[in-house]
């Protein structure tokens, strides 16, 4: 079976879950074309991302002449379907703050993607995120291309259901994927109950081969790690008052934040103002093996998210045998179990978060290890990327069979 993944910007440092999904599908024997609108302007430190870069076709790099020829081919070849696609693009634009020009660009991109998937013998398309990639896939389908599906991660899509025309994209799709039961519930809100069966849960997965039996935690100090884009929704700023309190009671406590983003400047200012320079490190983006090394060298992952889907970093920490301290947000409680694999606190409650960190510090080495073992068993049971790829491949096959 030949599949095309339709993506906006790929690969990116924060998209290892897509790369893993593709690896799982290809191990099953599926052939997958990568088609992205543009390449990332972020540095790609991971060799696997650099390899994906070389395997991806970039629509906007085809050039104006090629894009215009694709547009004319679609217009002249099947004027009726082109008119339907034009109408669909304008329908999306009518409720979007991005306006008509942006959606006309999506239509042009769709015309070129149509040429690529037809030339490649693609039987089904899959997009990640309910944003412009899903819009392009939908327009390709209206233009006469193969069926499509897309994965919704949240939280951005849940915050912009109407402006993204998410319900229409789901109605036109062969099926829609949510990464958690919580995510599925949010999508079902915008569909008639008779269409709920078209919303599937396929978890993002970890590669168990990359997480052998974990080693022991550090025997001294308190080492915490936070991994993710430095952004409002990830809540890293709340870690600054938390660390101020923790350091007051545990002077040897250290926190490393792996990732980058728009809040880096604000975090640097907070670290300086609170005198946490010896206790908090902003490490920037790191390659996947460096992330695994950071997890191996810590006592726990701390993820104080305000809004989420179901974070990959929680799965990675649990697979590495490390407890997780996080928040009661979105799909996180489906994976992290209070008192069994870690701690869950109310989002935005720095006092509760600090208490959880101090509770971790007060534990014996064996108690911490027991949390880690329980987390590892749970994530390997629920988030093995090869089993999840089998689920997704089954949905692809069913969509192709239905035509």
TrEMBL record:
The keyword Hydrolase applies. The keyword Hydrolase applies. Keywords: Hydrolase. GO terms for molecular function: glycosyltransferase activity; hydrolase activity. Gene3D superfamilies: Glycogen Phosphorylase B (3.40.50.2000). Pfam families: Glyco_trans_1_4. InterPro entries: Glycosyltransferase_grp1. This is Glycoside hydrolase. It comes from Roseovarius indicus. The lineage of its organism: Bacteria, Pseudomonadati, Pseudomonadota, Alphaproteobacteria, Rhodobacterales.
């Amino acid at each position: 079976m030949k599949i095309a993944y339709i993506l906006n910007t790929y690969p990116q440092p924060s998209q290892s879950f897509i790369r893993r999904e593709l690896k799982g599908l290809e191990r099953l024997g599926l052939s997958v074309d990568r088609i992205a609108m543009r390449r990332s302007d972020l540095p790609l430190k991971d060799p696997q991302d650099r390899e994906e870069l070389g395997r991806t076709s970039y629509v906007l790099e085809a050039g104006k002449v090629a894009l215009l020829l694709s547009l004319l081919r679609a217009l002249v070849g099947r004027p009726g379907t082109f008119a339907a696609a034009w109408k669909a693009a304008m329908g999306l634009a009518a409720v979007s703050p991005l306006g008509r020009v942006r959606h006309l660009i999506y239509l042009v991109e769709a015309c070129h993607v149509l040429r690529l998937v037809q030339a490649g013998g693609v039987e089904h398309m899959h997009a990640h995120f309910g944003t412009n990639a899903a819009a392009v896939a939908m327009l390709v389908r209206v233009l006469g291309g193969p069926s499509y599906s897309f994965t919704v991660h949240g939280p951005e899509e849940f915050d912009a259901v109407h402006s993204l025309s998410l319900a229409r994209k789901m109605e036109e799709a062969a099926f829609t994927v949510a990464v958690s039961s919580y995510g599925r519930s949010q999508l079902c809100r915008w569909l008639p109950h008779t269409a709920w069966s078209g919303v599937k849960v396929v978890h993002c997965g970890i590669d168990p081969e990359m997480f052998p039996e974990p080693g022991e935690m550090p025997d001294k100090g308190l080492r915490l790690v936070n991994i993710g884009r430095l952004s409002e929704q990830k809540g890293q700023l709340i870690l600054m008052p938390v660390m101020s309190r923790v350091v007051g009671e545990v002077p040897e406590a250290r926190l490393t934040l792996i990732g980058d983003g728009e809040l880096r400047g604000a975090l640097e200012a907070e670290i300086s103002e609170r005198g946490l320079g010896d206790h908090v490190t902003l490490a920037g983006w790191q390659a996947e093996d460096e992330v695994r090394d950071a997890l191996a060298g810590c006592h726990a992952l701390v993820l104080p998210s305000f809004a989420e889907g179901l974070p990959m970093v929680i799965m990675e920490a649990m697979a590495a045998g490390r407890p997780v301290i996080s928040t009661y947000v979105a799909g996180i409680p489906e994976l992290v179990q209070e008192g069994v694999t870690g701690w869950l606190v109310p989002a935005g409650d720095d006092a509760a978060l600090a208490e959880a960190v101090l509770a971790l510090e007060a534990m014996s080495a064996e108690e911490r290890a027991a949390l880690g073992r329980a987390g590892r068993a749970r994530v390997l049971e629920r988030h093995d990327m090869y089993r999840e790829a089998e689920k997704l491949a089954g949905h692809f096959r069913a969509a192709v069979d239905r035509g």
